[in-house]
Amino acid sequence: MTAPRTPRIPYGGDYNPEQWPEDVWDDDHRLFTRAGVDTLTVGVFTWSLTQPAPDTYDFTVLDRVLDRAAAEGRRVCLATGTAALPPWLAERHPEVNRTDFEGRRHRYGQRHNFCPSSPAYRRYARGMARRLAERYAHHPALLAWHINNEYGGACYCDLCAEAFREWLRDRHGTLDALNDAWWTTFWSHRYTDWDQIEPPSALTEHWSGPDHTAFQGITLDWFRFTTDALLGCFLAEKEVIRAHDPDTPVTTNFMGTFRPLDYHRWAPHLDFASWDSYPPLDAPPTRPALAHDLMRGLKDGAPFWLMEQTPSTTACRDVNPLRRPGELRLATFQAIAHGADAALYFQMRASRGACEKYHGAVIGHAGRDDTRVFCEVADLGAELERLGAVTLGARTPARTALVFDWDSWWALEISDGPSRLVKYPDVVHAYYRAARAAGADVDVVPQTADLTPHDVVLAPALYMVKGDLATRLEAVARRGGTVLTTFLSGRVDEHDRALRTDVPGPLAPLMGVRVDEWDARPPEFAQTVPELGAQARLVFDIVLPRGAEPVATYGTDFYAGTPAVTRNRYGAGEGWYVATALDQPGVDQVVRRILAHHDLLGPYADHPSVETATRVAPDGTRLLFLLNHAPEPAHLTAHATATDLLTGKRVDQGEPLVLDPLGVAVLQ
Ligand code: GLA
Ligand code: ZN
């Protein structure tokens, strides 16, 4: 199953009319119509209304919300509302409250606060999902199911400890296997009974926080267990929805590059992926782009939904800057360019009370339709309406893949040595950014992905190489492709045990290098890499070429003159090894050389502010998105004769093509 079929890009967002008297709803719908809003996500936090007591259900408000939406010709993404507990549930079953990393049993409060292993939570959450499905499966407004909200966090209670042990039994079979996997003879940890195993927390294996563990094996398994425990909650709800509604697509809203949950383990269970984009402050536009491509990669390149973004400002940060005029439009088209088939906001109308009352909304507290934000939202709504269905279902024809792996992320960042300062997403982003700035479309894929469509595979910081990936990477090179990997790759097996081979383990034959030693230095220290005119930091593998030729070398220290970057001929292709954390200009040069070899540099690769992305519609229509991220106009020369779908204007090949500040063109 894929995302819901719609005649245009669904436009709208989270809508909580239950917070307001009904005369306000009249204003809302009038304004929605003006803004071209056709889709509302409802019911995300309604549990204490729909079930005010254990045996009392009350759907009158939700009925009215859905009926009203239908009467207005709008569709609804209906949430099951199980992300925030009603107080009575926590009162009646205190064990539904989470126990935190420090071992403190929480009392009622906040949201995203349920213990995933609590039978009471699962029973009531499933009960709510079932009732909603029974009631609304055939409602004319229903477009999609939205289970829970932004799953995340962990619980360290006794129920979770017991569930963890069950999970471990399943995974390892015997205690001998577990002891071997976790290397428990180290520090006298050999377990002789499953009940001796404790969740890794501040009270057990950890010190100074979740990244410092005495046993990587147990902590890794705990992250996997947490992923699966929350997935179990999702599946419990999905199952009862399916029993009553076989046809409506089901999703839950993810958070992009979110470390705690391995979304690749979830992906097969979603009908379509969706996610909430709140880019970090001052992040380059390739950060949200990477997350979009990661989310698109969850369902094998199928379009995803942008389930939330703010029209103007967030509230949860210490300082919450406004989106400047034009930035919302640019961010929305960026999402569409990367595969979003819906553009939804958090939120449609601002709350009056509680912690999100200053969070940006399409409609502010005064209910006006002449604010700058409302006008920008309405203009964008009209523009998307004009664009119609042309982008829907379109795929990205990328020939470059970037391997993204949660196990590697976890294992690398919980490792003692060589450096705590290496952050997996930063390394991955540097390579992604280089490829995108050079104009290449990139599929961000799991280790298990089919790599046959790709000529270039970037696998930076691939700490844990699993299954037959090494063989498939060799196959890419053998048929003429290029594979790149870096320092901190090919280091450990699936239990985080060092491999009994030379580094980079299973990647060594393809890379033609051997690494016996690595140096790590504080961030102030920069090693020079003269051939690239670049600098390198943090970690420095000392490379012994075993067939590979040096492309660039270290400039100083006892390993001066030894390779920092190598290239190895393999079959008809190549393996590139980057032995250190090059600065961005260094990464750019390496990646551009590889892309140029495969003729994958984009037509506007020399315009640093201009992002390009391609989508090919189901009918074969090829669309090239041009996004100008600079506050000045971008002066380009059209690479082909095309029509800009947003203006209807034709540009001829070789003629000037000017993008406005923060401007967008969609060339067909
Ligand atoms: C998340 C949640 C929303 C809201 C926004 C605020 O994405 O899903 O309920 O809290 O953050 O930015
Ligand atoms: Zn628990």
TrEMBL record:
Record-listed E.C. numbers = 3.2.1.23
Which residues are catalytic? 150 (proton donor), 308 (nucleophile)
Q: Alphabetically list the UniProt keywords.
A: Glycosidase, Hydrolase, Metal-binding, Zinc
Q: For the Glycoside hydrolase family 42 N-terminal domain, which residue ranges apply?
A: 14-387
Q: Origin, by domain of life?
A: Bacteria
Which GO molecular function annotations are given, in alphabetical order? Answer: beta-galactosidase activity; metal ion binding
Q: Which Pfam families match?
A: Glyco_hydro_42, Glyco_hydro_42C, Glyco_hydro_42M
UniProt-annotated binding residues for substrate: 111, 149
**Limits of the Beta-galactosidase trimerisation domain:** 398-600
Enumerate the catalysed reactions.
Hydrolysis of terminal non-reducing beta-D-galactose residues in beta-D-galactosides
Task: Enumerate the spans annotated as Beta-galactosidase C-terminal domain.
Answer: 610-668
Q: Can you tell me which residues bind Zn(2+)?
A: 115, 155, 157, 160
Which CDD domains does this one have? A4_beta-galactosidase_middle_domain
What is one process in the GO biological process aspect for this record?
Answer: galactose metabolic process
Its EC top class is: hydrolase
Any one of the GO CC terms: beta-galactosidase complex
What family does the database annotate? Answer: Belongs to the glycosyl hydrolase 42 family.
- The name of this protein is Beta-galactosidase
Organism of origin is: Streptomyces viridochromogenes (strain DSM 40736 / JCM 4977 / BCRC 1201 / Tue 494)
